[in-house]
Amino acid sequence: MPFKASVLTLYPDMFPGHLGQALAGRALDRGDWSIEAVQIRDFALDKHRSVDDTPSGGGAGMVLKPDVLARAIDSIADDSRPRLLMSPRGRPLTQERVRAIAEGEGVVIVCGRFEGVDQRVIEARGLEEVSIGDYILSGGEPAALTLLDAVVRILPGVMGNQLSGVHESFEGGLLEHPHYTRPQVFEGREIPEVLTSGNHAAIEAWRREEALKLTAERRPDLLK
């Protein structure tokens, strides 16, 4: 069964976005995966199609209404796919979580807007809050595209060489080693000799050492 992504959003025209191009786009055309963008506003019942209201207790911004979002979720989420809410307060997205999602039948993603989403619908519909970083976006759509990009690229058949998805940063708990290609010399800088030696054991050892070095320098938290 193809991987199915359902995205609940106020801006459905943002999808599939860049995922309609290159490897992900060709996989989409082949039917290796599918995406549907659901307009949350379609589930508002008042004449103004209102999806938000002022925050209880006062404060800035608006809050996405729980009843409207619940109806939108209920219209498509009648299966066992995980239900994610893209949120800066969520658990950080990791490559391990990406792989777990890719190994499933699909995913339901809610794109937040405004000041946030009513906590009651998060609890009532079992939404898992996920963050792609410690920064704020204008909405959950770019975050949803980022998550789907990470997932789709490792679906079976999407990448020509499946090893491409294995020898990457975070897959082995480390950042990825440096890469080189021809020409042999670029502005006086040469490709490390070991990489052209033909000694595969030595190459793997060098890559491992370089990955450890980079991780220690840039992401020491990964080594704890």
TrEMBL record:
**Catalytic activity annotated for this protein?**
guanosine(37) in tRNA + S-adenosyl-L-methionine = N(1)-methylguanosine(37) in tRNA + S-adenosyl-L-homocysteine + H(+)
Keywords from the named record: Cytoplasm, Methyltransferase, S-adenosyl-L-methionine, Transferase, tRNA processing
Q: What is its main location?
A: cytoplasm
Listed binding positions for S-adenosyl-L-methionine are G112, I132, G133, D134, Y135, I136, L137
Assembly and interaction partners = Homodimer.
The function of this protein is: Specifically methylates guanosine-37 in various tRNAs.
What protein is this chain from? tRNA (guanine-N(1)-)-methyltransferase
Q: Which species is listed as the source?
A: Rhizobium terricola
Question: Mind giving the lineage of the organism this protein is from?
Answer: Bacteria, Pseudomonadati, Pseudomonadota, Alphaproteobacteria, Hyphomicrobiales
Give me the gene this protein comes from: trmD
